[in-house]
C-alpha cells in the first residue's frame, strides 16, 4: 500500500490566509471555553475523588513558655506529643478537605486564661494552619497567647489514593444507591418507551383527530422542572393525598413516586425521538407488505418495528440517562430511597463531604457515559437511514385503529395535563386539605425560603442570558468546526469537546465547578457566586444538543458556499452574516428556545453554585419543598411553566415570521 | 502545433509533478500539465479518476500533497483560495439561496472599492451576457436549473478572473438543457477569452466543448490532446475504450504491421510489438465497412461475417456481427440506413466486411 511518505517532492504546506487564521482563532477561543468550563472542572473533580486528607502531626512543632513568657521548654512535634499522651488514634486523623484540628487538643491541661505562651511552626514549608480563619503556612515560629492559641487549627495534607472509593464501597448506605438508581432507570425506561412508542405511533401511522393538540400536550413536561411531577404526586398520593387509596397502602415516597414522575418528565424526549424514527418510515415498504398480503400484525413486526428500531434504542438510552442523572424528582419524592444523584447532593450540601461526593459523581459518570456512547453510535446509523430515498408514508383511515389510538392518547394526555393541573390547583389552595378556598397567598414568595420573587427574576435573567450567549457561542462554534477548510485534527478535537457535555450529568458538572472555580488559587475564582457562573454552567450543560442542532442545519447548506465566497475574495464573516445566519435562522431560534427553557427548569446544573443573591426559581422550588412549603413550591413551578409557555409561543410566532419572510427563497 | 496538439502560445497554468494522497490511497500521481492562455481544457475520466481532485488542487480548496502549480508565472502551490485568481462553478450551482440573482452576481464585486452604480451596471452586463436580463430580482429557487447555472457562471466571471474552473457544471441538468448550455458556455468562453478548465465525466460534453482533453484514470493522465486526436488516435486501450465505442479483440502481433485475430491475418496501422506478443486489436464500429460486390477483393482486411442482431439507433443501425475468422468475438459495426437498404442487411444474413488497416490498432494486453 502506498503511503504519504512514499510521495516524492516537497510536501506542500498551505499558507494560511487571514480567513483561516481568524477561523482557527475563533475555534480555539470556543474550544478554550469548553476546556475551562468542562474539561478542567471535571479533572479537578476526578483528582478530588482520588484525594484523601489527613492531619500530618509530624509537620508541626510546638513549644510552651514558662509563666514569665520565656520559651525554655522542649520543642516537640505534635506527633511526639500525641504518641506520648495517646490523644488521637489513626482514624481520628483522617478527615476531609475541609477538616481542621485544634492544636490545643494536644494540651490536656490547656486553659485559655493561663499566662503561658505557645508557639508553633511547620517543619515542612507546606504545613498549613489557621489562626481563627486566617491561613498561615511555613516554618517560621509564630507566638500566641493562650487565648489566641485555642483558635489555632492545623489543616490536613492530601494524598492520592483509592481510599475514598474503599470507603464508598464499604458503606452499604452509599453503594446500594447504585442498584437503586439502575433499577429505577431501567423500569422507567421500559414504561416510558412503551407508552411513548404508541403515542408516537398514533401520531405517525393513524388518522386520529386532534393530532396537533396531542403533540402539544406531550411536549408540556419539557416546560417544567423535573421536581414538579413530584409535587403533584405528593398532592395526589402523599400522606394526605386525594387518591392515596389507589396505592393500597404503598407509599408514593420512594421508587413508585420516582418512576411515575420519571415517566412524566422523560415522556416528551422519548416521544420526539420515536416520532422522528416513525416519520421516516418508507411508504413503499407498507405498499409492498400490502401487496404481499401480510396481516397488519405481521406488517407491524416486519416493517414498523425494524424501521423504528434505532429510534427505540436511542429513546431508551436517552430516557435511561435522564432518569439516572436526575436529581430534582428523587429529592422531592424519593423519601428514604437513595439514588446516586441525590447522594451527591446529600454528601456535598448535607455533610460537606466533598470527596465522597466526587466519588459518587465518578460512579454516576459510568452509566451516563455508557448510555451516551451507545446512543451516539445508534444515532449515526439512523442518520444514514434518513438520507436514503424514501417515500413519506401517509396512513389511511382505519376506524378501529384510529378510535383506539384516540382513546389511548386521551388517557396519556389526561395523565400529563392532570399532573400539571394538580400543581396549579395546589398552588391556588389556601391550606390543603383543611382549607380549600382559593387564594394567591402561595405566590407571596417573599415569606418563604428560596429567594422570593427575585429568584424568579434571576431565572428570567439567567435564562435570557443563557439563550443569547449560548446561541451565539454554539452557532459560531459549530460554524467554525463545520466550515473551516482543512485543519482536520483541530476540528475533530473541537467536535469531541462539543459532544462531551451530554455525557456529563448536571450534578457532576455542578460539583466539578465547586472544585474548580471555588479554588482561591484559580484566577477565574471571581466568577464563583455570580450570575456568570450559572450561565456558564447552563450553557455548558446543554451545549451538545444545541451544537448538534446547529451542525445539522449547517450540513444542509451547500458545502461549496465557502469555496465560492473565497474564490470571490470575500472574507468568511461576510458569508457568515449574509448567508449562513439567515439560512440557518430557524435552527438558531430553535437553539435559543431550547437553551431558554432548559435554563428555566434546570436544577441539577445550578444547585451547587447559586449564591444568596443569584437564587433561581427552579432552586427555589426545591428549597421551598425542602422546607415543607409545598404549595408555594408548586406555585413557583407553575410560574416556570407559564414563563416557558410564553417563551415557546414567542418562539413559534418568531419562527413563523422568519419562515414567512423567507418563503420566497426557501421555496423550491 | 506542439506534440500534444496545443498552439504554442503562452503557458498560463502549469502543473508540475503534482501528487495527492489521502490516508489510504493516492488520488493523483505525478501529474504534469500545461494549460495555455485562453484555452478551454477538459479533465475527462470515470468517477474516482482524480479529475475533481486536480481541479480542487488548482483552486486551493484541497491542496495537493506535493508538486507545483504556477498560474500566470506566479507559484500558487501554497496559497489559500482567496489569494488565487479564479472563478468557480459547481455542479450544485452553490447559489446563495437567500440572495436575489442580482445580489448573487454582485457578491464578489461588493467591498472591493467598486462604486455601487458601476456594480449595478456590471451586473446588468453579465445578466445580458448569460441571457437572463429580466430575472435580476428573483431568488435562485424561483429559477430553473439551467437558469441557475447561468447565474452561477455570471457570478464566477463577474470579477473577471484569469481562470475559470467548472466542476461538472452541467451534470445536474436535463439532457436537452445540457446540450443547449454547453454551446452557450463554449460561446461565452470564446467571447471572454478566459482560460477555462472543466471537469466532466461526459465524453460527449468534453469532445464538443474542449480545445484539448486531459483523459485521466486512476490518478494518472492517460492522454492529452485535441478531441480529434484522442478519438482518432487513442494512446491507450483505456482511452480507446472510454471515448466512444470500441471493439476489442484478443490478437497476436505479427511481423511489421501484421496482426493475427483468430484465423484472420490482417494489417493494422502499425505497431512496435515483437511478433507473437498477445495484444488487443481494436476498431471503432463506425470504421467497419460493408463490402459491396467484389470491390474489396484487393484488400486483405476483408472477412466474411454474419449479422446476429441489429438495433436501430435513428441515424444508423448498430449491428452485432460474428465471424468464424475472428473466433468467438462478437463485434459491433455501424451501418448507414443506405447501406442496409442497398445490401439488404437483416439479422441472419451473411456479408463481407472490411476492417480498414489504418483504423485497426493494436494495444498491449491487460491494463484497461
Series of H and E elements of chain B: EEEHEEEHHHEHEHEEHHEEEEEEEEHEE
Q: What structural category arises from helix and sheet content of chain A?
A: alpha+beta
**What is the averaged pLDDT score of chain B?**
90
Please indicate the percent range of residues of chain A in DSSP E strands (runs of 2 or more).
5-15%
Query: In which range does the helix fraction of chain B lie?
Result: 10-25%
Helical run tally of chain A:
26
- Main β-sheet description of chain B: 6 strands, mixed
Global geometry of chain A = globular
Characterization of this structure:
The complex is a heterodimer of chains A (668) and B (368). By secondary structure, chain A is α+β, with helices and mostly antiparallel strands. Chain A is built from 26 helices and 13 strands. Chain A has helices spanning 18-49, 78-85, 90-93, 146-149, 163-169, 172-205, 211-219, 228-237, 255-279, 283-291, 296-325, 328-333, 340-350, 354-387, 399-428, 452-483, 488-503, 506-517, 531-541, 543-555, 561-567, 572-583, 585-601, 617-626, 630-661, 663-666, and strands spanning 51-54, 60-64, 76-77, 94-95, 101-102, 117-122, 128-131, 134-137, 142-145, 152-154, 157-160, 429-431, 435-438. In chain A, strands 3-2-6-9 form a 4-stranded antiparallel beta sheet. In chain A, helix 5 (163-169) crosses helix 14 and helix 6 crosses helix 15. Chain A is globular and about 105 Å long. Chain A starts with 17 loop residues before the first helix and ends with a helix. Chain B is α+β, with helices and mostly antiparallel strands and 368 residues long. Chain B contains 9 helices and 20 strands. Chain B has helices at residues 51-59, 101-106, 116-129, 145-157, 175-192, 203-209, 227-232, 237-242, 337-343; strands at residues 11-21, 26-36, 40-44, 66-71, 74-75, 87-90, 163-167, 195-200, 212-217, 220-225, 247-253, 258-261, 264-267, 278-283, 289-290, 302-312, 316-322, 330-336, 350-354, 361-364. In chain B, strands 6-7-8-3-9-10 form a 6-stranded mixed beta sheet, sandwiched between helices. In chain B, strands 13-12-11-14-20 form a 5-stranded antiparallel beta sheet. In chain B, strand 12 (258-261) and strand 13 (264-267) form a beta hairpin. The radius of gyration of chain B is 25 Å and the shape is elongated. Classes of the chains: A alpha+beta (668), B alpha+beta (368). The A-B interface holds A 1-4, 7-20, 485-486, 558, 560-561, 563-570, 574, 578-579, 582-583, 662, 664-668 and B 17, 19, 21, 24-26, 30, 59-61, 63-67, 77-84, 86-88, 90, 92, 94, 96-99, 107-108, 110-112, 139-142, 155-156, 158-159, 161.
